[in-house]
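Severity: low
Component: inverse-folding endpoint
Summary: output formatting inconsistent between runs
Steps to reproduce: submit the following structure tokens with default settings.
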């Protein structure tokens, strides 16, 4: 049996382009009919590692971080909403939306990996934040999301108090940063090559086609 193509997706739960990038990658995989030849693993990256527990209004946050005007932000939000709609994903931006801390979500994504539910939980977190107006730093939202994908919420949430689990996420974050990953999504193939950003579906198809062909010839 041929080895699967390993894809590491370095991303954050509250990163809109990570969602768009993944949905385009997913579409490329589906259109090529190679679902059974791909192994996806999500890797942690925090856009805002120092975000306090209360979070920050998104408009205020983007203005502070990037210097974007309100008009620029509205245009960007519309652009993302349109891109999401094409892929069957709803971005529901609203004035009171808050950027939140995602460290706990990353711990839970690591937990979900052992049960083969990492991608399912990742998309459930993303949907909760962008589509359902939920705060994915809150324990009740995390619990509800875990249950929605059929995971043991009590067992998973216990990981949030584990120093080992917290250290594991920090170590993984540092690993990718030391490799030069400083923007997300960064999509890494077989730990050898990578593309950054939400590339078009056809670009992903070309990359996947070449890598699968190369793998078959080995």
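Observed output (run 2 of 3):
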């Amino acid at each position: 049996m041929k080895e699967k193509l390993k894809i590491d997706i370095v991303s954050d739960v509250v990163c809109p382009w990570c969602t768009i990038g993944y949905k385009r990658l997913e579409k490329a995989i589906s259109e090529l009919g190679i679902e059974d030849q791909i192994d996806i693993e999500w890797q942690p990256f925090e856009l805002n590692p120092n975000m306090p527990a209360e979070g920050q209004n998104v408009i205020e946050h983007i203005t502070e971080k990037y210097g974007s005007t309100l008009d620029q932000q509205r245009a960007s939000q519309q652009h993302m909403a349109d891109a999401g709609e094409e892929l069957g994903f709803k971005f529901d931006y609203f004035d009171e939306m808050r950027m939140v801390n995602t460290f706990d979500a990353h711990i839970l994504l690591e937990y979900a990996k052992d049960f083969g539910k990492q991608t399912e939980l990742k998309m459930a977190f993303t949907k909760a934040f962008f589509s359902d107006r939920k705060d994915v730093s809150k324990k009740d939202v995390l619990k509800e999301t875990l249950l929605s994908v059929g995971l043991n919420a009590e067992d998973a949430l216990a990981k949030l108090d584990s120093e080992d689990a917290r250290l594991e996420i920090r170590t993984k974050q540092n690993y990718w940063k030391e490799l030069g990953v400083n923007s997300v999504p960064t999509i890494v193939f077989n730990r050898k090559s990578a593309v950054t950003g939400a590339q078009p579906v056809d670009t992903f198809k070309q990359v996947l086609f070449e890598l699968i062909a190369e793998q078959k010839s080995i």
